[in-house]
Known about the structure:
This protein is an alpha/beta fold. The protein has helices at 30-41, 60-71, 93-99, 144-170, 193-201, 235-238; strands at residues 3-6, 47-50, 76-80, 104-107, 112-114, 117-122, 131-133, 139-142, 175-180, 205-208, 223-225, 228-232, 243-246.
Amino acid sequence: MALYALGDLHLHFQVQLKAPGQKDGVWKNHETVFRRYCSEMIRPDDTLVLVGDHSWGRNLSEAEQDLQYISDLPGRKILLRGNHDMFWDAKKTQALNERFSGKLFFLQNNYYAYGEYALVGTKGFTFEGPFMINRKRQVVGWDEKKKERSEKLIDRELERLRISFEAAANDGFTKFIMFLHYPPTNILERSSGFTKMAEEYGAEQVIYAHCHGKSRFHDSILGRRKGIEYSLVSGDFLRWKPMKVLP
Length: 247
Ligand SMILES: [Fe+2]
Ligand SMILES: [Fe+2]
C-alpha cells in the first residue's frame, strides 16, 4: 500500500486550448506520460491524490472525458478542488461523490483514511498580487482591493480546512497529511493561517500544487519547517511522475 500525489493535470479532452504553445515542452503529451507513470507505479490498493486543476472543462459535461481518464487510472483516486475546476461547486461535493461513487473520491469538508492517517484538505488560497516591483525586483506594494478580497477567501478556506481536520479528529485520527491546491504561503510570507493550522493539528506533511512554470516553483515553502514536510507536486514540477507521500 502506498500513497501518491500530483496536481495540475489541466486535462482538456473536450476543450480546445486557446493559447498556442500550451502543449509544448513538459506539457507535450503529458496525459500519456502521466498515465504511463501511473500504470508502472500504482497498484490497485494504492491511493493517488490529485491536488486540483484537473480539467479545463467549464462544467461537468465538458469535464466528462477528463474525469473518465482519471477514473481509468489505477488505485483509489482522491480529488481536491483547484481554482480551475469549474465542474465542481464546493457546495455540491456530496452529489459528485454520489455520482462517481466507488470510482472517484472528492475531498471537501470531509476526509479519507489512509491506514492510521487521515487525508485532509481544501483548495486553500493565497494572495498572489499583483505586486508592485521596483528596479531591484523588490516588492514595494500591492493592489489593496485584491488583498482585501483575498483575505475573505482565505478565511472561508480556513473554515473548510478546519471542518476536514475536525471530521477526522472526531473519528479518532491523530495523524494527518494535509492537502492544498494553492501554496500555503505567498512569496512574501513565512507563515499563514494554513501553516498554523497544519502545526495546530500536528500534520506531518503539507502537499500543494498550483505553482507551475519554472519561475513559480519556489513561490512557497519546500522542505521541512517546524517539523512539517512541505512538498510542491504540480505535474510539470514533477515532470508527471507522481510523488510518493507515504509507503
Ligand atoms: Fe494549475
Ligand atoms: Fe491552480
